[in-house]
Amino acid sequence: MELTRKQIIEQARAYTGVRFRHQSEDPGAGLDCRGHLVAVCRALGVTLTQNSRVYKHKPDGADFLRRMRAEAALVEIDVSARADGDLVMLAFPGDEFPVHVGFVGRGLYEEMIVHATKARRAVVEEPLRMFVEELGARVTHAFGLTARGGF
Q1: Using CA atoms in the order 22, 37, 16, 94, what is the torsion angle rounded to 10 degrees?
Q2: CA 106 – CA 129 distance, rounded (Å)
Q3: Is 43 helix (H, G, I), strand (E, B) or coil?
Q4: Which end of the chain is more exposed for a tag (fewer CB within 10 A), N or C?
């Protein structure tokens, strides 16, 4: 069975409302942004090999990006080519490298991000535009989930 974009974004959305918990990959305890990615992949039968739970309060963006690029299940794509189920990495004002990750999904009228965010204290789905405007984030990188092909 091939993994579809619809399956990926639906699985990401399935964790909406799960509370935020720093460095957790356990939906029962809470999730951070990387933990949300790991939980989605795990539920879809995709194995991620890079451990990103080695940071204190804020991840080392250069290391975070390096680990994302090293994942066999992910392929880096052009940011402008992102589509439902793809991952976007974001940097905040003052950050040279990305420190946050979430899934892209189309809402009724605009692009949404499904992510675990400390600012909202949970996994939420919100307009990516609003997240960018409110927190000053910028999309720096995008990845497709390729472990089972299909896109």
Answers
A1: 60
A2: 12
A3: helix
A4: N
pTM: 0.91
Taking only Cα atoms into account, the Rg of the chain, rounded to an integer number of angstroms, comes to 14
Dist. CA 30–CA 18, nearest whole Å:
6
Neighbours of 122 (CB within 10 A): 18
> Is the CB of residue 73 less than 8 Å from the CB of residue 98?
no
pLDDT digits (tens, 9 = 90+) for 105-119: 998 899 999 999 998
Report pLDDT for 119: 87
DSSP string for 71-110: -TTEEEE-GGG--TT-EEEEE-TT-SS--EEEEEEE-SSS
Six-digit token string for 21? 């918990």
Q: Diameter of the chain by CA atoms?
A: 43
Alpha-carbon gap, residue 61 to 67, rounded angstroms: 10
